[in-house]
Write a structure and sequence with these properties.
The protein is mostly helical and about 110 residues long. The protein has one domain. It is built from four helices and two strands; from the N terminus they run E-E-H-H-H-H. It has a two-stranded antiparallel ribbon. Helix 2 crosses helix 3. The longest helix is centred in the last third of the chain and has 14 residues. It is globular and about 40 Å long.
Length: about 110
Amino acid sequence: MELRNRKIDMGCGKDNIDGYLHLDRRFHSHHIEGRRNLRLRWDLKNGVCLCSGCHMFRKESAHQSPEWFHFWLEENRWEDLQYIMCVRNEIKKWSIEELQIKLLELQNEGG
């Protein structure tokens, strides 16, 4: 996911060159629709890279202010948000073969 987002915090816009950013020096991967949703759990459109502040600790962060984060998604990731809203209630049971294919897709996405 970091490579997909060009090593830039999608919330505050700071970069994470060589894996160093803010206090914990790492990105956090935030699921837009929670990990319990197996239909979207491994879908890259359902994730965003954030620093620890934008993820959990700032007043305007994904966890502290879900309303703010939803508005941020509407402004910055409208197509992905619409996709998530359309498929989030679909039930998905993954077979071993489907999981293996998804793993290969994710590995290819990363470079």
